[in-house]
Amino acid sequence: INAYNATTLELVASEWPLTSILSLDEGKVFDTRKFSLGRELISLNGVENQRLRPLGDPRIHAALVCAAKGCPPLRPSAFTGAGLDAELDGAARAWAKTTAATLEREEKKVHLSRIFEWFGEDFTGAYKTYDIPGVEGAREAALNFVATYSSPKDRIWIRSGDYTVGFARYDWSVNGE
Question: What pLDDT is attached to residue 177?
Fold first, then answer.
């Protein structure tokens, strides 16, 4: 996780100024750029899909930062081996408060991050924990993930199921904040 995040930040800083990380390498920067991880040259997608996702913990999606406004927020410190479980929970809570989902109570709508669409199968095993009326499959698992890491008030509303669910447009503009 730390290698992915540090490499992404270094890449954006070295190419600054830019409006989006996708403006690099015709939008294929996550596959084209390689960096050293131990003795291996690997892409950012390689780290995510070959090293992290197979570990089976969907909280990694709350920890990986792609330098875009649509990403989960970057932690102010590196992840550690001893504190990893609590740190991933913290990253999941921070993401639930920011870009994981937009809850529009008055309009009875939820807009989930596209991360849940792109990696839906990662969440279905661990987060099929609560039956949300009117919602099934990967969307239900995504909502259970968000509810798990949300405030009690948001958790109750999410679990009510009295809304429509869609995916938000992903904001790939560079997060310069």
Answer: 57
